[in-house]
Amino acid sequence: MNPSRNTPRKPNRWRAWTQTTGGVVASLLLVQFVTGLLLAFYYVPSVDHAHVTVSFIEKVLAAGSWIRSLHHFGSQWLPLFLFVHLVRLYVDETYRHCPGHWIGAVLLLGLTMAAGATGYSLPWDARAFFSTRVAEGLLGGLPLVGRNTRLWLLGGSEISSLTLSRLFALHVLVTPFLILLVVWWRGSAVNLLNRWSNLRFHLIAGGLAFTVLALFTAKFPAPLGPSVTTASADYLPRPGAQFLWLYQSLKYMPGGLGSIVGVVLPALALLTLACLPWLDQPWLKKFSARPQRWIAGVILAACCVLVVSMTVLSYLSDKKDPRTRQQLARQASEEAAFRQAPFVPQPVMLGAEQATTTQVGPPESYNRFCANCHGPHGEGARQGNLRFPPLLGVSLKPRRTVEDIVGLLNDPTAYGLEPPMRSFATKLTDEEKKQIAEWVVKLK
Amino acid sequence: MTERGQNNSPGASKTRRTFLLLLPLGFLTGALTSLAAASFRFLRPRITLASDKWIDVAPVADISGTAPLPKKIVVEHVFGWALTTEERNVFVLPAKNNQVLSAICPHEGCEVAWDKNTNRFSCPCHESFFAADGSKLSGPARRGLDSLPSRQQDGRLQVQYQTIAQNPKA
């Protein structure tokens, strides 16, 4: 199994360390499995509970933020180290000595990207929602099979709770099962155990990778924005680091070509790499003496150039435009505010509807001052360009307790509200403000 | 690695090898321990404290007669991320100064019903029977129905709801 058996052993002490990319990948995979399992104990894949369960993990549970961050950033490191692993196997010409090893690594790269893509939608904040939209668009734009692929992914004609369940099943059952299958098939773990001298290096490298990731994630929590239902129309979605290259290259592709670049091309590249052990064909030798080395080299180099250049470009283009920069900064501060806000449990009715939702009419002062814009039942309204937000479910948002709403009526700007919302500090008595606030928080 | 070890002096080689053996094991233990500790804290169950909130049962004026009256109360609890609102069944005993009984059978936690014909509470699960005042008549239950703390406030009967641990005798 070990390629170094076939190549003459060089008396280079660093050589053993270059062989440990597999150990790093294995330790990152292990982290993903363990943290994913833990997150599944709390996560609920439904559009009305997904976000609240993730913020519960993030804000309330002990070590929750760290575990989620490990899972988030681990999912970005994994494809990176798998790529490095693949490059190492390429340098060692593993595809000739040990085709199973090579094919396994290629399949793992594809599967971890798939796991990342399906997992990104699960927190159901604005970032997750738009990544689902883009995935929907990419698959829908595929030639011939686009329409059906899209329908099958969404579970219907639109993104809904069915979509989230599907992505959840794909993320926690299908991809991990396939990954385990590949790992088991490669049998590299058994092979490693037989060779303590190698295992030692793998353990050190893997442990080191985990340590660095653990320290990194202890400092940087995984991003989580407010629920998608509260996202404003000017939200600028940005994907995770492992998909920035795709996001950026889609900007340069006219329409349907994006699906080709985003889906077909990577799939073809992975397929070619996976088939590399069989590409030692005589007819290919006409072009080059070592066609495998040549093909894989071109694909790996092209991937490398594309990913690095597009990722750098996406950072640069976000930096360049001052309006984008401002909006991104605004989003970052919204996320920070959401993170600071205390956790609000979500109301769940268990067969007690009649008893509690005895609707009480709004106080008289609400009808006089608020109903004009926010609607007689707090349903919100739209007048020309002006959008008056609905007050339904407002108590689920951060900083919207009874005291907050009284404060907000006194000084709307302090709560980030903009005109036409004005101050009612002098127009309403304190008693009236309290009545309005108490009525508004009950709206669902 | 072993070949190179032979070039060094035997003692140095031995410490070196022990070190190289311990280092990965240390890394492995460190990584696994920190993950295990985090997992334990992450999965640790969240104890919900008994609520001391007073919940409306019924207006005192509506309570009459001698037979136990079934009532539904609305209980709110924070369970993790969910603020659940659910209905629970209780019985008011007008004959016993409006004492309020939990409908939960003290045997295994099924819900008892009032049987008008035989004038007793019966549990649908394991045939425990209780008298009109809640005391145990027969069956596997080890004590009578649990009474809940109650009070009368502004003409309304109120209780503090709690699920009482099953099976202990008293």
Quick structural gist:
With 444 residues, chain A is an all-alpha fold. Helices cover 62% and strands 2% of the residues of chain A.
Give your account of this protein's structure.
The complex is a heterodimer of chains A (444) and B (170). Helices cover 62% and strands 2% of the residues of chain A. Chain A has helices at residues 15-18, 21-40, 50-59, 64-91, 94-97, 99-119, 126-140, 146-154, 161-186, 188-193, 196-219, 244-252, 257-274, 291-320, 322-340, 353-356, 364-369, 371-374, 402-410, 430-440; strands spanning 346-350, 381-383, 386-388. A two-stranded antiparallel ribbon of chain A has the order 2-3. In chain A, a hairpin with a 2-residue loop joins strand 2 (381-383) and strand 3. In chain A, helix 2 packs across helix 11. The longest helix of chain A has 30 residues, at 291-320. Chain A is elongated and about 90 Å long. With 170 residues, chain B is α+β, with helices and mostly antiparallel strands. In chain B, the strands form 3 sheets. Chain B has a 4-stranded antiparallel β-sheet, with no helix packed on it. A 4-stranded antiparallel β-sheet of chain B has the order 5-6-7-8, with no helix packed on it. The longest helix of chain B is centred in the N-terminal third of the chain and has 34 residues, at 10-43. The radius of gyration of chain B is 30 Å and the shape is elongated. Classes of the chains: A mainly alpha (444), B alpha+beta (170). Strand 1 (346-350) of chain A pairs parallel with strand 3 of chain B.
